Automatic annotation (TrEMBL):
The Tol-Pal system is composed of five core proteins: the inner membrane proteins TolA, TolQ and TolR, the periplasmic protein TolB and the outer membrane protein Pal. They form a network linking the inner and outer membranes and the peptidoglycan layer. Belongs to the ExbB/TolQ family. The keyword NAD does not apply. It is found in: Cell inner membrane; Cell membrane. The keyword 4Fe-4S does not apply. InterPro entries: ExbB/TolQ_transport (IPR050790), MotA_ExbB_proton_chnl (IPR002898), Tol-Pal_TolQ (IPR014163). Residues 79-207 form the MotA/TolQ/ExbB proton channel domain. This is Tol-Pal system protein TolQ. Pfam families: MotA_ExbB. GO terms for biological process: bacteriocin transport; cell division; protein import. One of its GO terms (cellular component) is plasma membrane. The chain crosses the membrane at residues 16-37, 127-150, 170-192. Keywords: Cell cycle, Cell division, Cell inner membrane, Cell membrane, Membrane, Transmembrane, Transmembrane helix.
Length: 236
């Protein structure tokens, strides 16, 4: 009787194909949860780093000194700090070569955009996997359900009198595949939508910082004060 079988027993007694489907869905669920936990920590750290860097950047300190401190630390920079480092490095290098204001600012902006693209790629990493799991898991589970029900009714071919008790275990194991597909898909879809929105917000902050730093460097290139003074004036 189906009522005498636990879900674990139904899984163990399922057909080989249905067991493969269940194993794939279980693996997909484990992968999606590992991505969710890692991405949650990564985005939280990215927001905290951006807050901390903006606080230092807009404090009115000398940007040349800030760049030297970052450069001499020889650590791998991320986020807004990486954008600043690449932009200011290119600005300083081109200025030492005597490049005119237009190409000077264009070069600094190009360096910031490259860093921005790298940071965006890092933040968006693995989100496509969540989207894939969320969109395909229900169909994989449905395939296992259809296969299990088909096997359940196929077993009635040589039976003179069919009863519900004979097909109930097969149908039950088939429905477990659907449930596992939903269990893998629903958290992945929710997490993808949530994290995609957070990534967009962080990328907007980065893009805004590129514009602000470009404005500061433009003032500095035109001879209107030091980078520190230009930053204080822009923030005011």
């Amino acid at each position: 009787m189906a009522g005498d079988l636990s879900p674990l027993e139904l899984v163990l007694n399922a057909s080989f194909i249905v067991q493969i489907v269940m194993a794939l869905l279980l693996l997909a669920s484990v992968v999606s949860w590992s991505i969710m936990l890692r991405k949650r920590s990564e985005l939280r750290r990215a927001r905290a780093d951006a807050d901390r860097f903006e606080e230092v950047f807009w404090s009115g300190g000398d940007l040349s000194a800030m760049f030297k401190a970052i450069d001499q630390s020889r650590r791998v920079t991320k986020g807004m700090e990486s954008i600043f480092e690449q932009g200011f490095r290119e600005f300083s290098r081109l200025r030492q070569q005597g490049v005119t204001q237009g190409p000077l600012l264009e070069g600094a902006r190009r360096g910031m955009k490259v860093a921005l693209l790298k940071e965006s790629d890092r933040l968006e990493h693995s989100l496509s996997m969540l989207a894939t799991i969320g969109s395909t898991s229900p169909y994989v589970g449905l395939f296992g359900t259809v296969w299990g029900i088909m096997n359940a009714f196929h077993g009635l071919g040589n039976v003179q009198q069919a009863t519900l008790a004979m097909v109930a275990p097969g149908i039950a194991e088939a429905l477990i595949a659907t449930a596992m597909g939903l269990f893998a898909a629903i958290p992945a879809v929710i997490a993808y939508n949530r994290y995609a929105d957070q990534v967009t917000r962080i990328e907007t902050r980065y893009d805004t910082f590129v514009e602000e730093l470009s404005s500061i460097l433009q003032r500095h290139a035109s001879g209107r004060g030091t980078p520190a003074a230009a930053a204080s004036e822009a923030h005011a």
